[in-house]
Write a structure and sequence with these properties.
The longest helix has 20 residues. The protein starts with 7 loop residues before the first helix and ends with a helix. It is elongated and about 80 Å long. It is an alpha+beta fold. The protein has a four-stranded mixed sheet with strand order 2-1-3-4, with helices on both faces.
Length: about 270
């Protein structure tokens, strides 16, 4: 991932109003910078949007380096709400950097995110889709780089609005992290199209369409039972359509959903 500074106002000043921004001042000729760089980039990736890393090459951005009073590199500074809140110099070990982050990241941000995640779990468990959408949109707004929140938000609009799901993932078409989500959206959109077709005179094809109708009406367990029967009877139907439908439903529901847990093993046995 490219963390190099492109626009200071948008990436640091504006971003810091909602998310802590960690600035890594470095230069290509600096040996310790090459030691610190991979470590802090790894931590930034793990943070999944809790804080943002911006690397600033002091040879390219000499004026910025002067404004921040950089006298030696590597030098790391944390900016939040437009203010400098913490800093350290030198290539610290990973454990010390983790401790520095733990001590200086705003606790309120962590608490707020955790509180909303708990509310989200309750909304999902109760089947409150409106509240689920609202909470996921809030969490994505707080952590716009969090792939888990983005994926969950996209999946939360299925099976009702596949196009809305695509819009949420717009711009991520070539990101392998979202490959299964795009496949799921395509499969659910296809099932919705089949569900809208007239009844089929061929019994197995009609059975498949009936399961597709159950997906559209959120009757997921009934749909899975039908698809699993077809998977074990006529796997070639609709070009392995039953397998694709099962995979899409498991992704839509999530691995911890009771229906997924009940039928995942049978699905695997039918495959192999």
């Amino acid at each position: 991932m490219d963390y190099e500074l492109k626009d200071f106002r948008s990436e640091v000043v504006e971003q810091s109003k909602t998310t802590p921004v960690v600035l890594d001042f470095w230069a290509e000729w600096c040996g310790p910078c090459r030691v610190l760089g991979p470590v802090i980039e790894k931590l930034a990736a793990e943070a999944a949007g809790q804080w943002k890393l911006v690397k600033i090459n002091t040879e390219v951005h000499q004026q910025l380096a002067a404004q921040f009073g950089i006298r030696s590199i590597p030098s790391v500074k944390m900016v939040y709400n437009g203010e400098l809140v913490a800093e350290f110099a030198g290539a610290l070990p990973e454990a010390q950097i983790r401790q520095w982050l733990k001590e200086n990241l705003p606790a309120s941000q962590d608490d707020d995110t955790l509180a909303h995640e708990e509310l989200l779990d309750q909304a999902i468990a109760s089947g409150n889709r409106t509240e689920t959408h609202r909470l996921l949109e809030y969490l994505v707004g707080k952590q716009p780089e969090n792939a888990a929140f983005i994926s969950a938000l996209a999946m939360s609009w299925l099976p009702d609005d596949p196009e809305k799901s695509r819009q949420i993932l717009a711009g991520h078409e070539h990101d392998s992290k979202y490959e299964i989500q795009f496949q799921t959206i395509d499969t659910v959109a296809w099932l919705a199209k089949l569900a809208a077709e007239a009844p089929d005179e061929v019994p197995m094809q009609e059975a498949f369409k009936q399961s597709a109708r159950q997906v559209v009406s959120h009757r997921y367990e009934e749909a899975l039972k039908g698809f699993l029967h077809i998977l074990g009877t006529d796997r070639a139907l609709y070009e392995d359509g039953a397998r694709k439908a099962c995979v899409a439903l498991f992704t839509l529901l999530g691995e911890n959903h009771p229906v997924t847990k009940s039928y995942r093993r049978r699905f695997s046995m039918l495959l192999y």
